[in-house]
Amino acid sequence: MSSLSPLLRKAALTLLGWSVGLTLAFPILWTALVSFRSEADALGAPAAVLAAPFTLESYAAITAGTRFTAPFVNSVLIAGGATALALLVALPAAWALALFPGPRTKALLMTILGTRMMPAVGVLVPVYLLFRDLGLLDSRAGLIVVVMLTNLPVAIWMLYGHLREIPGEIFEAARMDGAGPGAELRHVIAPLAAPGIAATALLCLILGWNEAFWTLNLSAAKAAPLSAFIAAQASPEGLFHARLCAAAMLASLPVLGLGWIGQRALVRGLTFGAVK
Amino acid sequence: MPPPPASRRTARLMLAPALGMLAGWMLVPLAMTLWFSLQRYTLITSGAQGFAGLENYRYFITDPAFAPSLGNTLALVLGVLALTLPGGLGIALVLAQPFWGRGVVRALVLAPFFIMPSVSALVWKTMLLHPMSGLLAHLARSLGLQPFDFLSQAPLATLIALLAWQWVPFVALILLTALQSLDPAQIEAARLDGAGPAARLRHLILPHLGRAIAVAVLIQTIFLLSTFAEILVTTNGGPGTASTTLTYLVYIQSLLQFDPGTGAAGGILAVLLANAVAIFLMRLIGRALER
Amino acid sequence: MAEILLEGLSKRFGTEEVLAPLDLTIAEGSFVVVVGPSGCGKTTLLRLIAGLEEVSSGRVLIDGRDVTHTAAAARGLAMVFQSHALYPHMNVRENIGFPLKMAGRPAPEIAARVQAVASQLGLGDCLARKPCQLSGGERQRVAIGRALVRAPAAFLLDEPLSSLDAELRARMRLELARLHRALRTTMLLVTHDQIEAMTLAEQIVVLNAGRVEQTGAPLALYHAPCNRFVAGFLGSPTMNFIEGPEAERQGAHALGIRPEHLRVTRAQGLWPGRVDVIEALGAESFLHLSSGQGRLVARLDGSADLRPGETVWLTPAPAHLHRFDAAGRALPQRPG
Amino acid sequence: MAEILLEGLSKRFGTEEVLAPLDLTIAEGSFVVVVGPSGCGKTTLLRLIAGLEEVSSGRVLIDGRDVTHTAAAARGLAMVFQSHALYPHMNVRENIGFPLKMAGRPAPEIAARVQAVASQLGLGDCLARKPCQLSGGERQRVAIGRALVRAPAAFLLDEPLSSLDAELRARMRLELARLHRALRTTMLLVTHDQIEAMTLAEQIVVLNAGRVEQTGAPLALYHAPCNRFVAGFLGSPTMNFIEGPEAERQGAHALGIRPEHLRVTRAQGLWPGRVDVIEALGAESFLHLSSGQGRLVARLDGSADLRPGETVWLTPAPAHLHRFDAAGRALPQRPG
Amino acid sequence: SAPRAETTITVATVNNGDMIRMQHMIGDFQARHPDIRVDWVVLEENLLRQRVTTDIATHGGQFDVMTIGTYEVPIWGRQGWLLPLEFDAAYDVDDLLPPIRDGLTVEGQLYAAPFYGESAITLYRRDLLAAAGITLPDAPDWDAIRAAAAAITDRTAGIYGLCLRGKPGWGENVALLTAMANSYGARWFDMGWHPQFDTPAWAAALRDYLDMMRLYGPPGAANNGFNETLTLFEQGHCGIWIDATVAASFVTDPTQSSVAEHVGFALAPNRPGGTKRASWLWAWTLAIPAGSQKAEAARAFVAWATSKEYLALVAEQEGWAHAPPGTRRSLYAQPEYHALPFAEITLHAISEADPVHPTVDPVPYIGMQFVAIPEFQAIGTAVGQQFAAALAGTLSAEEALAASQQLTLRAMKKAGYIR
Ligand SMILES: Nc1ncnc2c1ncn2[C@@H]1O[C@H](COP(=O)(O)OP(=O)(O)OP(=O)(O)O)[C@@H](O)[C@H]1O
Ligand SMILES: Nc1ncnc2c1ncn2[C@@H]1O[C@H](COP(=O)(O)OP(=O)(O)OP(=O)(O)O)[C@@H](O)[C@H]1O
Ligand SMILES: [Mg+2]
Ligand SMILES: [Mg+2]
């Protein structure tokens, strides 16, 4: 790329970037397209699907009544609540691990990740019993806690990685400037690790939003999130491609939107010009 | 730089909530699972219940699907990693450069990760891969080829492709964020030192990304080891045992057979496997974490 | 060993013009030092030559070849960054050896050359350390080593000695001079150290707010600055400027006289002055005085046996009086 | 305005002892300058006092209070980092204002004080810029501003002026001196600049390889160094050392004579020497000579009308001859 | 809105068309019982089964009404997990089709009320057969099926003579193959609970199945379950399809099927001269877990949803074709319903079904396309994998049967049926 003129280089990159992006997103774009076709049109050959008329009937069908809104609200509360909680707990932990490394730090990090190693299917019954006895079955609070706990190790790991990237002298400067741990976290770490925190929050949101095992198995009617909504759409008698696609789009749009906003925050990379 | 003790106390205080919660979340179910794994305990038969010793483990290990499931699990994890790491790195490198519409492309690239796994699996299965109505089948036929029945003929490879598609944005995202903390002056210095793009990648960018890569590998591995919904939706672990993983076998035991005892035994075995893999990985990439 | 030619080179960051279009020839094998106040664009100039910054207008030619749009790596220049820009994950040995590795030199040769450069720079003990384990001066020396280990077309050195102690700095200065004599590689050095500028340069370029104020041999600039800025910028303590009736009497807007050209006597002299502060450096002392001509600084050899508050007489050496017009331009020396 | 007491303070990194156990008293309100070669432990010393590094042994007392295990933030000291350590996400205004914000000062007060400090440092134009948009000198001034804006118990300044040009440096030097006179806050400054050390310090601490070589007033150290290291380290160009028969004749292992104490004459003198190099700085010139006593440097006022290759005579000023024993210790001045 | 004390019941149900329709009809129930609110938990079949089983086995108490199949009802009823159902006279229990009702009764107690029922039939394309110049008898045997399939298969045109389930699962390919094996004289277990996959009858059934699917089946059949095959058939890719009776109402629905007017029906096939057809019996039923705190409200709901009035309500609002089939004699007595092309044959198939004597040789279990023991889910799924592998070509028929035999034996030993 060295001797290419900047403009040509940018054009080549544009081409490359767009083809990668479109290829990766193709299944989703196609899903979106099919969701706007009638059920009969959706099953046709690709060319026919492309040419078929636009319709919102599938969306209308699956959003009838409160079948969508209630799970949607639950998903927002659960994913959002779990993310907020996870960050709240993970940020100090990651800070401590990253900035005060000791001989046991690595082992501790491994242990933290180790909590994710138990396959959920293997512990469902014990956890179900636990939830039953605590009266947490089908409650949003219970789901928030579970989703938070499943995401916590990942959050700590991601944040740890990002915090380690920040040059240590900046924290020292903050300490010299009289910042206590709280102020340091708020004024220096949080903004400096912002891209990392944003990435972590985004990841937690996505994982929480898409978490389907615990949310499905520990909820019934009141706390059921969108994963349950999707499970209600998948493979009824007959294949309803359009309806399935519409459901998939509806369930994914919020996170897709978040991703759209989130990636903008991520771009705001920081250059560490301050440190020699 | 070893910190003064005062800060170390604060550090411990900061760690406490997270460690406490995780310990609870890990230890309580783990203890229960251990206990269940030693019990004769099935949900839908009221047959003899009680202490079973290692019977559950014996039964799980002698399952004819056990050996293939181990192989499949490892193949799945390694296969996905082999695809997502280079792929994610390439994408991150492209996305780190300025070009027209980069924001949109970023969103496009990240999109697969945003879709619920079971939905992705359904979409792939019914709309892309289906040998009659799938897009690829249409494509093959329009080229005069016989459509390939991916899920029957190459179930594991197809699953790996599907999972790689889901996870490559994650890797790209992590590496992209890490790329942005690379001091541009270093790249400039390397350019002056005569390092071409490949050399810069190898000697500067990759070492800088070391920890991010390690994080991506570990997190992915942990998630991949417990892959479940995708298998359930696409292949049900088959045909035969061709795509049965350890986790899926545990699922069969605990939630199809409703035999939490044996399922728990399988769960404990899965934990052991995950730890073995993790320790192996730590050996491999641990140094990147320390730096 | 290259001639560097800048033609109408300029640089804007956004709307701010950091370098005004400037023309400059750096002769093959010469040693040019760029000086100027902080923020005047010295680093930017080097980065433009290196190809790290895109030019806003103008051309850069190396040995007659237009490299304005050539990638940095292909220009064959070596640079010491003001911020060092060491590779944090490589130890000192790897940092210094990196350019050679990139050039595909065989490992034994790299090892030998790194060893040589490191001991030349007094880094022999730290070869296995990472940059984060080095002191500031050690880091800077690694940055220098990374440049010295190569055989580039030209060296671009951005304040390469700023973090070194006086002794080491003097040694490094001589080392650079020796190197330049031996290799005759073109060198472009940015510094804010007077001694470095005066002793190393064959030619000094004085930059101010993105503009070249004057170019010339060190002593020529020192003795015949073309304007008040250059006069004031070279020399430390800075030149005394006198405005008012005394200047007008001599047909100028301002007079300039360097501290060492003010003779200080207990009795008799041209202007009386009161000693405010005495800075004793051992070999010399600086007298800060208040006089009818304003605040003045005079320089004395050794320690002065004066005390603050004393009144002394000051006499400028007429041959060393500089005269400036209202725009700051130097006026020709007055005959007599 | 605090007294800082170090008792048996030492620091090891792994097995390497970077600071040997040292005792040091920094009197309340004094201005102490620490000098020493690169890598001798100056920064480490400051970091230990600041509480950024854990001591390996010994105690740090501030105003009699043992703070060895007190957190950095609670010690009430302000520090300028050698590497600046600016907050990259804050602009200049926020960087400077940060300590005040941490102290919970009201916004208008912060704004006013930041404004004052910034204009004092010549940063008025860059207040809205981020660190990555600043030149090296501007960054350093921001780092200084961040310390100056506070009213700390003491200032710890790690080479705060190293990236500034001579003029600015002189101005900042005077500024620091003025500030110290005004506030009488204890100041501990690390520098490798002779002028800074000599002019600012009430007391100079010479550090070498983690050990204190000598402590004392600047001129005392300059004129009566207690050993060869201190003698050679202070003063630039460095002192000439002469070993061999001439030294033995004077009852010493080595003689020391500063360049300014070597009189150079065309005819007549003690030792003949051949001029190798002439470094002309304008106000003065350094002559590098080869003589029977080895290589010598002499200092001349103004420009010397000598040329390389010429032979001259050198005469040391007897009153300024230093004598050292084989261990490098200074021997008492010879009567006569 | 109404300040009256309200009972909220949670109904867990599958997302099949008839159940979705039930949700749309809930206004009628609400009108009759204004003090009962209904919360729905709608899930796809496998998930629903997993959820309700976990819940009922651990007494989680999250559901007041559960949608379960004829497989679970006798097992759960025997465990005492379900509330015995008693209805008033207006409900007319005797109107329920006897084979269905028998399947839901344990020791004389009804434990679940059928919402809809089904058996198996042969669906075929009259137009294709006519074009090929053949006809299919109303009670075909496998040879006739094979001959017809051979005659109409045209791969280049995307027409596949025979579509059968191939997707692994005890409710998918195992259901079909069990029914088919029954017609070949095979059985799962002998009277001593010994697995019978090593018998010639099983070998013949599986070999024929694989043979026909290889020659006349659609590509990717190893992933085709009921849904996938239904879609294939509706799109005109299938000549003959042997599957559940409910399929009849879908493929004849012109809004959904492109071949609606060309579908013919026949009974499920048997072996030439055989006594058992490849048929089955299944019903989705509503049951109330024993622990429910709201049994009264739940019972009211179950009664409403499985009542004659409900059938009439659906018929009135959506047409008779959409009434849940296969549960009540009275439905088939309705002239409008009887006139539907599939009504007669569905009734016939269901009435003929005999889950207590599903096989030629005697068996110790109940169930035609399944074996009503708790272990069957897991065994069936594993066996289904073997069959799917055979269909995908990764195993031979012999290997698949041997593996099935072995794993079934193992599981039966573990469960203590045999030593
Ligand atoms: N990326 C940037 N965006 C905006 N302004 C910039 C940027 N980089 C540098 N500048 C400004 O350009 C001017 C020249 O910067 P430069 O780094 O060349 O100065 P310098 O002469 O090297 O100063 P110093 O001696 O302090 O290092 C400064 O005023 C600086 O603030
Ligand atoms: N983290 C560390 N691990 C190992 N050695 C270290 C570490 N930090 C500093 N050192 C070593 O300790 C010695 C003293 O370092 P220090 O930074 O105090 O030097 P300094 O006197 O400030 O030098 P300079 O003038 O070059 O800044 C150096 O030799 C340095 O290499
Ligand atoms: Mg600069
Ligand atoms: Mg230092």
Automatic annotation (TrEMBL), chain A:
Instruction: State a single Pfam family of this protein.
Output: BPD_transp_1
TM region positions: 75-100, 107-129, 141-160, 188-209, 240-261
- Where is it found, in Gene Ontology cellular component terms? plasma membrane
Can you give the residue ranges of the ABC transmembrane type-1 domain? 72-262
Which keywords has UniProt assigned to this entry?
Answer: Cell membrane, Membrane, Transmembrane, Transmembrane helix, Transport
Tell me which family the UniProt entry assigns to this protein: Belongs to the binding-protein-dependent transport system permease family.
Name of the featured protein? Sorbitol ABC transporter membrane protein /mannitol ABC transporter membrane protein
* Organism of origin: Rhodobacter maris
Its ancestry begins with: Bacteria, Pseudomonadati, Pseudomonadota, Alphaproteobacteria, Rhodobacterales
UniProtKB/TrEMBL annotation, chain B:
Q: Which SUPFAM superfamilies match?
A: MetI-like
Where is it located?
Cell membrane
Q: Which residue ranges traverse the bilayer?
A: 12-36, 74-96, 103-124, 156-179, 209-229, 264-285
Q: Which GO terms describe its cellular component?
A: plasma membrane
Q: Single Gene Ontology BP term?
A: transmembrane transport
Any keyword Mitochondrion?
no
Q: What is its main location?
A: membrane
Q: What is the topology of this protein in the membrane according to its UniProt annotation?
A: Multi-pass membrane protein
Residues annotated as domain ABC transmembrane type-1? 70-281
Identify the keywords attached in UniProt to this record, alphabetized. Cell membrane, Membrane, Transmembrane, Transmembrane helix, Transport
One protein family per Pfam: BPD_transp_1
UniProt family annotation = Belongs to the binding-protein-dependent transport system permease family.
What is the name of the protein in this document?
Answer: Sorbitol ABC transporter membrane protein /mannitol ABC transporter membrane protein
Species, as recorded: Rhodobacter maris
Automatic annotation (TrEMBL), chains C, D:
For this chain, the family text in UniProt reads: Belongs to the ABC transporter superfamily.
Organism from which the protein derives: Rhodobacter maris
Residues crossing the lipid bilayer are none
- InterPro entries referenced in this protein's UniProt entry, alphabetically: AAA+_ATPase (IPR003593), ABC_transporter-like_ATP-bd (IPR003439), ABC_transporter-like_CS (IPR017871), ABC_transpr_MalK-like (IPR015855), ABC_transpr_MalK/UgpC-like (IPR047641), Mo/tungstate-bd_C_term_dom (IPR008995), NA-bd_OB-fold (IPR012340), P-loop_NTPase (IPR027417)
Span of domain ABC transporter? 4-234
CDD domains per record:
ABC_MalK_N
Per UniProt, the keywords (alphabetical) are: ATP-binding, Nucleotide-binding, Transport
Protein name, entry field: Sorbitol ABC transporter ATP-binding protein /mannitol ABC transporter ATP-binding protein
Q: Per its record, what are the GO molecular function terms? A: ABC-type maltose transporter activity; ATP binding; ATP hydrolysis activity
Q: Name one GO cellular component term.
A: maltose transport complex
Cross-referenced SMART domains: AAA (SM00382)
Family annotation (PROSITE patterns): ABC_TRANSPORTER_1 (PS00211), ABC_TRANSPORTER_2 (PS50893)
What domain of life does the UniProt record list for this protein's source? Bacteria
Q: Which SUPFAM superfamilies match?
A: MOP-like (SSF50331), P-loop containing nucleoside triphosphate hydrolases (SSF52540)
